[in-house]
């Protein structure tokens, strides 16, 4: 497993400063979160590319920009966000993009099905053309999006992924909050290709906990070898990030 840090924690900084702080923390790998781009457009993609290459960091994954559609008339916005995120992933040489369902949890089922088909009917072929794997993330109770548990994720996949090409980004923080950790792992362990790691409310793990030890062991026993992406709340201090990094380096060495 490779330790990585989501740069979304420093989204208020300009991109060069964002990467510089991560480099100073001695991380080698990042997940680039699209919320760090102030304006999603083509020119911005290449600005981020130049900054990343100058930093020496490696972008293992990218988190797509998110737009949870409430009405079919909004589908074009979600498609645009998905495609511009994929362009950024290509520019940063990220082989995998984490993506939400992009539909609101308040959307009626028939409308939800239509929106999912229309959104992913465009995003999936575009990702395939660019050679980037998509990984659907399990969401939290607080999210406005649909897809927080196995039942909801299965509904999504039955509509958009009958060929079983999509991977899964397993968000441990969200799974803890929705109490579906074991269910998600047992159902999708073969498809997990990214792990978002944080305690509840995206707080950092400063000390080892039984839940943390259990999930890392379970992932290891399932043969998972992908990124462990620390996705932390923006209020997390530099000292807390340092302690979290040391803890995970120790835990991963023990596996």
Please characterize this protein's 3D structure:
The protein has 255 residues and is of the alpha/beta class. The chain has one domain: Divalent-metal-dependent TIM barrel enzymes (TIM Barrel). It contains nine helices and eight strands. The protein has an eight-stranded parallel β-barrel with strand order 1-2-3-4-5-6-7-8, surrounded by five helices. Helix 2 links the parallel strand 2 and strand 3. Helix 1 packs parallel to helix 2 and helix 3 runs parallel beside helix 4. It is globular. The protein starts with a strand and ends with a helix. The mean pLDDT is 95.
What's a quick, concise take on this entry?
Helix 1 packs parallel to helix 2, helix 2 runs parallel beside helix 3 and helix 3 runs parallel beside helix 4. It is built from nine helices and eight strands.
Which features would summarize this protein structure in a list?
single chain, 255 residues, alpha/beta, TIM Barrel, 8-stranded parallel barrel, 8 strands
Estimated structural class: alpha/beta
* Number of strand segments: 8
CATH class designation: Alpha Beta
Output the number of helix runs.
9
How large is the radius of gyration? Answer: 17 Å
Spatial order of the strands forming the largest sheet: 1-2-3-4-5-6-7-8
Low-confidence stretches: none
CATH structural fold name: TIM Barrel
Task: Please bin the fraction of helical residues.
Answer: 40-55%
Distance between the termini: 9 Å
What is the approximate shape? globular
Give the full name of the CATH homologous superfamily.
Divalent-metal-dependent TIM barrel enzymes
Order of helices and strands: EHEHEHEHEHEHHEHEH
Most strands sheet: 8 strands, parallel, barrel
Overall tally of structural domains: 1
Strand fraction: 15-25%
CATH architecture classification: Alpha-Beta Barrel
Return the average pLDDT rounded to an integer: 95
